[in-house]
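The instructor's notes for this session suggest beginning with a concrete chain rather than abstract definitions. Hand out the sequence below and ask the class to guess, before any prediction is shown, which regions might be ordered.
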Amino acid sequence: MTQPAFLSRTLTGRQQRAGMAFAVPAALLFAIILAYPIFESFRTSLFSIDLLTGDASYVGLDNYAALGGDRNLLSTIGNTLLWTVVSLAGQLVLGLIAALLIDTNWRGMRWIRQLLLIPYVVPVIATALVWQWMLDGHYGIISTNLQSWGFLPAGATPLGLEGTALFTVILVNIWRGFPFAMLVYWARMQSIDKGQYEAARVDGAGAWREFVHITLPNLKSATIALLALRGIWTLMYFELVWLLSRGGPAGSSEVLSTYIYKVVMGEFRIGYAAAIASAVGLFLAAVGVAGWLVVRTRGRRSK
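After discussion, reveal the predicted structure:
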């Protein structure tokens, strides 16, 4: 027996109101935790604040106007883009290789999986200390070997040279972050229909063709998710860069997160630092909206 139209509309209205009521606590939590700090950061960027006296003078968009003339900021943006792109590429490629490895049924694979997770589960401060010890120019196992092979001058460390500092930090970041990509890829591999591989083998496809035509296409959604999550995370990552190099030497490994920290804690320019953070946040929001529009447009075309 079908329900009258007015009764269906009434039930639908009640369900919508109930859904809105359940969404209110989450919306309030979002406003408190995320929206308010964003608003406060933008508001702070409109002022020049004296930390000694607490006086704040309204300067409007002067802090934003100063961004274009900051040469240190421009070089830092270049470092940040290089840091983000290379770190992401390295983590995704290494994570995919590791996922393919642990997806096999080799003997002892259970222990290999656990070993591969160590870089991600070890606290970042412990990771930084161990790498600093290995890269020390006098007794570090990595630096002393590079010196003996003629790649480094005596007593030098890759973290202390302008040409290698940033790439050294990037390599450490790839090592620490690839297990996350490995887990995401491996989890997605478990849901791939095994019948696709069986059909490909019947058609005479080898392992490489199976990987290119079956595995990679099925990992597209996981790759997009990793690019979004790890991209934002890496772009504003602070701890590892600060602990390893503090942005040096001579700003060669400076990224936006460490630069903002120095502007606040070293130069006490809170308003200018807030302007940098707000500009970065606006850029990320624009990239996110653009990505959402592209995915939505492609989804409509595929229907």
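Then share the key points. The beta strands are 47-49, 56-58. The first helix runs from residue 5 to 44.
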